[in-house]
Design goal:
Layout: H1 5-8, E1 13-22, E2 25-35, E3 40-44, H2 51-58, E4 66-71, H3 81-89, E5 91-94, H4 106-111, H5 130-142, H6 158-170, E6 176-180, H7 188-205, E7 208-212, H8 216-222, E8 225-230, E9 233-239, H9 245-252
Parallel strand pairs: 3-7, 3-8, 5-6, 6-7
Antiparallel strand pairs: 1-2, 1-4, 8-9
The structure holds adenosine-5'-triphosphate.
Adenosine-5'-triphosphate binds at residues 22-23, 27, 45, 47-53, 257.
Amino acid sequence: MAEDPAMAGDPVLRLSEAGKGFNGVTVLDGVSLEVPQGQFVALVGPSGAGKSTLLRLVNGMHVPDSGTVRTLGENPAACSRRRLRALRARVGFVFQQFGLVGRLSALENVLMGALATLRLPRYGVMSYPHALRVRAVEHLDRVGMADRRFQRCDTLSGGQQQRVAVARTLLQSPELILADEPVASLDPAASMVVLETLERISAEDGISVVCSLHQIEFALAVADRVVALRGGRLVLDEPAAGLSAERLRGIYGTAGARDD
Ligand SMILES: Nc1ncnc2c1ncn2[C@@H]1O[C@H](COP(=O)(O)OP(=O)(O)OP(=O)(O)O)[C@@H](O)[C@H]1O
């Protein structure tokens, strides 16, 4: 049975000296991080700093070489496949490229977020239970997309597609949302709409969000806390309030994945 992080008094997420390398090259180097329930964490740092790798350790897509990762009270690296599936159902993942099926409507894409909990494959909106359809429309409403629910996703703008992807994630009732550069392909206005949507959901529902971002200004505008990686090491971990853009820019310095 899954441990309840609230009952155990655990943070939603805890990395202790987590390390990961590929082909003999260290990508994450002894990273320790705790995220409490309901916090919006922006993960920043130069390209190659290890942000995606950290997010993948959290949902068990990668296994750490050293240290430990605990996600919602579970150790993903030690989970059986069944238990890992159950853990991933509690963790929403929002990708840069949305991951929607373009020829299907916004509503059907959101409904697909519940496929893991349904026994049989589904074809068409009406094949999903009524209560689920109602919830899917409610989530589309929360992200401002209810009026577009019957529109094919490949005819929506990038920002609209990402909001549909957030609604799909919400249908999972996630306790933690991991977002890997969710606005990398969007213009500034659309980016802010997506990030403010995530921020509002985090605040209203008490869902922790860990969101990798390249835009420092966005990180400061929406996050409770900013965590910066450089060369696989955690080099800054502070509340967003009071943190200056100049200081954060200093993390980027001369571009490069590692200091050494
Ligand atoms: N599966 C893998 N096999 C080999 N190398 C990998 C693998 N995944 C990541 N890496 C390497 O690890 C380093 C960190 O990659 P990662 O994607 O975590 O960085 P990032 O901070 O998310 O970068 P970006 O901001 O460009 O997305 C990079 O040098 C990358 O090439």
